[in-house]
Fold:
Amino acid sequence: MQNFIEPEMVKIIHQKPEKTMTIEMVHLPKGRFMMGEGNEQRAVVIDYEFEMGKYPVTFDEYDMFCEDTKREKPKDEGWGRGRQPVINVSWDDAVAFCEWLSEKSNQNYRLPTETEWEYACRAGSTTEWSFGDIKKELEKYAWYNDNSKGTTHIVGEKKENPWGLFDMYGNIWEWCENWYNEKKKYRVVRGGSWDNNAFVTRSAFRHVRIPTNRNNSYGFRLLRTLS
Structure:
């Protein structure tokens, strides 16, 4: 398991009374791994350290951004806000949040690339999931269509991966920074969601969406770069 970072308190100074946001990150090491599967599998070297959000971004966090920037808050479908993962956000919304948080904290937050996301998800594993190849075990790590009861769930309720990251599988799809291919029409989403089967939650599974799309299964996770 990797080193947890002391939670960072970010002041939201344009509100009265002032509010703070607790950002929990996990420090990830340099390394190498086999990305993808089948004929598309390839060796990748990560020659830098970075930090990844311990959880997907929640409504608590995203709502603070909306209040500070006078944006309309996304719908929660009646499933609750608070520590529920934020949904109904586009790629553009997620990038705007990262830019806002970077300015507020004087740190460099962004979406993970697809490569960084899979590296963090696999956490040193070479199997279908970070915990192995047995599908039945997914129940311990993810909210997906077999156990979600048709809704998202509070982040961190399932088991974490070997590097201390929660909800990498299921709950919500997570937007990645990069385009799917050179045509630059679709952005990549990873991890599967509450309404998907086990197959699409696998570490190597790729999925795409138009970046302006908003949906009740799309959210995102933060990456913080290090100098």
Observations:
- The chain has a mean pLDDT of 93.
